[in-house]
Amino acid sequence: MLELGLEKAVSVLNAEGIIIYPTETFYGIGCKISSEKAISSIFQAKKRLLALPLPTIVSNLEQVYAFTQLSSAVRSDVEELAKLFWAGPLTLILPAKKNVSALLTGGTGTLAVRLSSHPVAVALAEGVGEPIVSSSANISGKEPVSDFSALDEELLKRVNGYVNLPPKPQGGFASTIISVQGDKEIKILRHGAVSLEQLSEQGYRAI
């Protein structure tokens, strides 16, 4: 099991490898979203059902726009939500462009994106020049992990390396997941660290 610095981790990702890395909440497992081979490897490593989409982390809004197809109303809301809650634990569900793998989206035609507040996660997305998968680093059905020593040995054997640079993941609530409808209408798909009250205070309406 290979410990990686940031530069080497980016090289592994660019070579269609999969790695474990820290986010602000839990350790994640990831790859480049343009590599269907690597995406498939993550499903196998996690023993995850193929029908379940994988979330992603971006380094900036340009990476969001490169892989999503947004109406002007949705784009306006994305820009505002990003200013209000990014970097942080708010995941946006957006219409994916046709170049995004159906394996990544679970056949939903949508892409889940967020900008993490963890510098390592953002640096990896920035380094490869595209979003990276950010699924929790656990075997499906098991709890996410915020302590590196608690990572599943079986999972560790199935990845191409890991990054364990500070700060340590803090655990707590996972990201809130919302589908952005436009005109400040949202659908809450998972309650998490960003509350409905916080979103409502900014004029967003849950439908």
UniProtKB/TrEMBL annotation:
Pfam families: Sua5_yciO_yrdC. It is found in: Cytoplasm. The keyword Plastid does not apply. It catalyses: L-threonine + hydrogencarbonate + ATP = L-threonylcarbamoyladenylate + diphosphate + H2O. InterPro entries: DHBP_synth_RibB-like_a/b_dom, Sua5-like_dom, TC-AMP_synthase_SUA5. Its EC number is 2.7.7.87. Residues 3-194 form the YrdC-like domain. PROSITE patterns: YRDC. Belongs to the SUA5 family. It comes from the Bacteria. This is L-threonylcarbamoyladenylate synthase. PANTHER family: SUA5, THREONYLCARBAMOYL-AMP SYNTHASE. Keywords: ATP-binding, Cytoplasm, Nucleotide-binding, Nucleotidyltransferase, Transferase, tRNA processing.
